[in-house]
Amino acid sequence: MKQVFRGYPQALAAAETGRKLMPYMVYKKDSQPPESGNAGRRKGTESEYLKGMYPLSVKRCQCLVEEACDRLDYSGSPMYDEYPDREFLYRVRDQIMKNAQDQGMEVRQDLTQVLLLEEIGRRRNTRG
Fold first, then answer.
1. Rounded to the nearest 5°, which phi and psi values hold at 118?
2. What's residue 34's pLDDT?
3. Within 13 Å and on the Cβ side, how many CA atoms surround 47?
4. How many Å from the N-terminal Cα to the C-terminal Cα in the chain?
5. Which pairs from 46-49 meet CB under 8 Å and 24+ separation?
6. Low-confidence ranges of the chain (pLDDT < 50)
7. Secondary structure (DSSP) of 86-115
8. What is the dihedral angle through the alpha carbons of 101, 105, 110, 111, rounded to the nearest 10 degrees?
């Protein structure tokens, strides 16, 4: 499965190859101040921008978290329960950790848990 990085892929590619990006290469060309009617879109854009500033190891872990959440993003998913089950969240985190180890990545359990909870919270807010 191809890894998809949501945010600024040129920053991820540059970090992996060791190239240095000039400041104008990191920002979108169409960056304009959001209008008041686009508050929801603005939050999403800010979130993506901030994700683009994560350290490389965290970006890789975030990609795995997003893939796991993509698989769980369906109607009736336990991810959208009013109070998600703690054991369910631990199982998802453990699957992400296993996928990371299979790919030769070293990720921390606490970091993976935080990224997972943030991604689930983001999806719950945009869906509801």
1. -65, -40
2. 47
3. 17
4. 28
5. 47/122, 48/6, 48/7, 48/8, 49/7, 49/8
6. 25, 29, 31-34
7. HHHHHHHHHHHHHHHHHTT----HHHHHHH
8. -140
Asked whether the whole model's pTM tops 0.85, one would answer no
**Cβ(89)–Cβ(125) below 8 Å:** no
Token look-up 């991820």 returns 12
Distance, C-alpha 46 to centroid of its chain: 13
pLDDT digits (tens, 9 = 90+) for 67-101: 999 999 998 999 999 999 999 999 999 999 999 99
Return the percentage of the chain with pLDDT > 70, whole number: 66
CA distance linking residue 3 with residue 6, whole number of Å: 10
CA atoms of 26 and 22, how far apart (whole Å): 7
Three-class SS state of 33? coil
**Residue found by looking up tokens 């945009």 in the block:** 126
Radius of gyration for the chain, computed over Cα atoms and rounded to the nearest angstrom:
16
- Residue whose C-alpha is closest to residue 56's, from 18, 94, 30, 89: 18
